[in-house]
Amino acid sequence: MADASKSSWHGLAILAFAVLAADQATKYAVERFTVVGSSRVLIPGLVNLIHTSNPGVAFGLLADSPTAWLAPVLIVFSVSVIVLLGWMLATGRGGSLLGQCGLALILGGAAGNVLDRIMRRSVTDFIDFYVGSHHWYTFNLADSAIVVGAAFVVLELFWDWRHHPTHERA
Prior knowledge:
Layout: H1 3-33, E1 39-43, E2 47-54, H2 70-90, H3 97-120, E3 123-131, E4 134-135, H4 141-163
Antiparallel strand pairs: 1-2, 2-3, 3-4
């Protein structure tokens, strides 16, 4: 691996680890200083802190599932994604810098949520974003990093498509 790509990989690893560390620190603070189900207004009309525990997948899907295999399947799937993302970044297959940063954000977020599943068999969520009576699903810092990372990857794909068409349009 060339020195430039090695330093790039180190920077991406630091970004992923920073997301993981910040995610775990915020979840620890919420778990330590609030009780499950508690709610505090942070920004009136926009953001509440609500301590919840989600044993399901994104947006609370399958949260009420009584199946014992759900947590192990989610852990195996998440670890597989983490390994794939790590491989893509380490081998330089993550695209340009924007795409690589996006993949590193997704990697850090996925690692934060899978660590919760391994340690607690559920993910701690606490950010309740809303406008008026319209609430988004409660989420955490890892979820935010995954969404922002995915947006970076999509932006790179569109940017690449618009500026480097692979074929002429009819």
